Amino acid sequence: MKLLIALAVxxxxxxxxxxxxxxxxxKGLNIAVEFEQEVLRVGESNTMVEKISNDKILPISILQxxxxxxxxxxxxxxxxxxxxxxxNYRSDFFSVLPYQKVTRSYPCxxxxxxxxxxxxxxxxxxxxxxxxxxxxxxxxxxxVYVLPKKLGEMSIPDSVxxxxxxxxxxxxxxxxxxxxxxxxxxxKAEELVEDGICIADAVISHCFKNNIPVSLRTNAADLxxxxxxxxxxxxDTDDEISLEKTLAxxxxxxxxxxxxxxxHEAAKDDKGNILYILISNNRKSDFVKVYNEFIEEGEHxxxxxxxxxxxxxxxxxxxxxxxxxxxxxxxx
Length: 332
Prior knowledge:
It is a single chain. The protein is of the alpha/beta class. It has 2 domains: 28-146, Immunoglobulin-like; 150-327, Rossmann fold, CATH 3.40.50. It contains 6 helices and 19 strands. The strands form 4 sheets. Strands 13, 14, 15, 16, 17, 18 and 19 form a 7-stranded mixed sheet that branches. A hairpin with a 2-residue loop joins strand 6 (83-84) and strand 7 (87-96). Helix 3 (189-209) packs antiparallel against helix 4.
């Protein structure tokens, strides 16, 4: 008899607890997953922080936070419950007492340029009996912008510094960067595109340091909008970060249009006193043709920068040392 009573009480208790948890497990439960820094550079460290606040008398026996994160964020300690693909899928477990606050920090290193966001953040909570998981979803946090690797001022070739020094800002002189993400060959393609983006970043930094208004056009797609990455002329140092964020958003794998269309449009917009800095690894015949037309027909003040490796020539431009410069980016 006592056994039956105990069993009945247990069943009633189980259902009462289940009903209570179903209605109230998420009440007063505040969870945030965020990064300490929203803007940083390739190779720099960031910290992901998980914050939990359980502002009620009801404990959560097991609380699981599950989400996807880019695999280019290398965490200091590999998680056994993380599976790797294009994304790393993390599952972090907590046991939260009444009115308890829990904070965990996970250092990581950002190894690739881009803009990144946690996705599919789901929270699962279990009751005393660990019999059923109840789920809620969290809002995705802000984007993390990983800017291109910073090139030192000493790495800028003399011909580039001289060309920028020729810009007469007193006569409304400005610099327009035309960045071509088309490649000369597919050998180490991603590395050369990233080198070109790093070079554009170095030129932008040099312009701001010397109070030269600068703008950017590229045929690459924006990771967020899918449209071409284009900026207006910027001269205020407070806006430098907006240009660098544009570089972070470049999708190096997708071109919206052929680069020749960008050059034609830039030539039409020429209102004088502009230094055009073309950054292009592509040296194929179609690019050479439109480049020569750009030089000869428009008589534009132009410098062509070719990102390339040390042991590779820049034919057919190797003899034009006045208007063309090879820039080798030293990578780790």
